[in-house]
Amino acid sequence: MLPSANRSNTLSSSPNRLSASASPPASWRQRPCPEGAFDSHPADLTCGEWHTSDGRFTLSVVILRYLQNDKQATPLLYLQGGPGAGAGIGDKRSLQRWRDWRDFSGLRRDLILVDRRGTGGSQPRQICEAYERFSREVLGRNLELQQEWREAQQVLDTCLAAAPGFNPADYGTLISAADIQQLGVALGIARWHVLGVSYGSRLALALASAPKAGSETRPAVASMVLDSVYPPGEGGLIDWPDTLARALDGFYRACVDDADCVQAWREQGFSAAIDPSQLQAKLFASLALLRRAPMRVDVQVAGLPRRVVVNDHRLLAAVFAASYHRHRWSDVIRALGAVEQRERAPLARLMQLFVSQALSDSITSFTFMAVDCRDNRLGREQEFEAAVARHPLLAPFLKGMWQGQICQRWPQGAPLELPAPPARVALLAGKFDPITPVAWARELHRHWPASKLTEFGGIGHHVLGSKSCALAQLEDYLSGQRQRFDDCTEH
Q1: Contacts made by residues 313-316, CB under 8 angstroms, sequence distance 24+
Q2: Listed residue (271, 317, 18, 275) closest to 149, CA to CA
Q3: How far is Cα 433 from Cα 315, in angstroms, rounded to an integer?
């Protein structure tokens, strides 16, 4: 039963909201860094807030300074994925991770990190508390997928009705690009290198194509590194049936040559090599079994145990989530065997990853939805149904999705366009990336033939986060000592 429409169901802002009127629009102000951020470190941090030109948002910004004598003059702007994810700059521990990232990569320049609108420490960061609560509680119930969608939509509609101040038109990639460009002008940056990961690569492309910031010249892009390319015109609901099918097919094929997958496969009693069609059959047999007889396993949510119901659609979601990460592929194989044997532990291990991602506080759900709706073409119902028809095995997990899509009631933004390429562009793609497939990087490379495309074998999403040997090449590329990244996955 849904809770009644009361204050707890409304969109709320995160604590300690900064008023947009606290500073004139389009202004930069330094502020104290998180407590303890300077412990055992030299004063290498500048923390501040950027007040956007529309006066609606205050964005958190951190500049991690490089203080050694071999410092390179041109800073690196890091654009994280998402689009509802913050930069991870809100506390001492997070900032230490960024120091470690900088030191491991050998970066010899300043690093600029920004919480975009509605993410991380930006204000307002509007949260539908009832939706977050529903997302936790529904995992303990055995609902058909379409019923779960309907209940979630009712919760969202209640939040939106009670929060007329939330305007999805305040979000979008072009708007974020303008925010960041104006910030660069205020910081006096003439040139910067731009590293965009996943959604951040789309934002990087928009940043390169954005108009001048008022009367000021925007910072020039000295070079661009796009990791897990997400170009304009790709993604969104209309592409989801093909995206899901492609991700699963990629997982089946990737496991064939993965040593951990092969070991897990043999543990199931198979002596022959993995056959992709056999692995597919094993997955759908497990889905059918859980549809008839769901299992219950215990996972950790915010440090506390929670029992979740694993039915067919939740297992499929967990398999998709695991396909992002090579080290999780073997967990899928073991979980499928566990379903057959009705063993909880291997299934719980797989579900833990899915639950941690789905309920992560680092993702702001409404911001994700708003940007996704603004950026991506909704398409027509007939198009979506035709895509579903191409994948009959997946049809039970796709039927009804288009009709309940919130983007139908939210305004779309201006179409995103591909800009002229910067002088130096590196494209990085994992050959088994399920969500930003290598084909997207290849297509961008076709439009930008001077770009340098490197395909990394045997890995999925986020190359620089998956292979330390790839991250170790970053500074050499930025400084011009190498002209492309090398595939180091076999080294």
Answers
A1: 313/144, 313/145, 313/148, 313/397, 314/139, 314/351, 314/354, 315/286, 315/287, 315/290, 315/339, 316/287, 316/397
A2: 317
A3: 19
For residue 147, the tally of other CB atoms under 10 A from its CB is 13
Q: Which of 324, 298, 305, 145 is nearest to 332 (CA)?
A: 324
- The one-character DSSP state at 461 is S
Neighbouring-strand partners of residue 197: 227
This prediction's pTM: 0.90
Residue 138 has a CB neighbour count (10 Å cut-off) of: 18
Phi, psi (degrees; rounded to nearest 5) at 45? -115, 140
Handedness of CA 39, 41, 43, 45 (dihedral sign): negative
Tens of pLDDT along 288-329? 999 999 999 999 887 888 999 999 999 999 999 898 888 889
Residue pointed to by tokens 């939210």: 410
CA separation for the pair 131, 365 (Å, rounded): 9
d(CA 432, CA 326): 9
Q: Which residues lie below 8 Å from residue 137, measured CB to CB, with a gap of 6+?
A: none
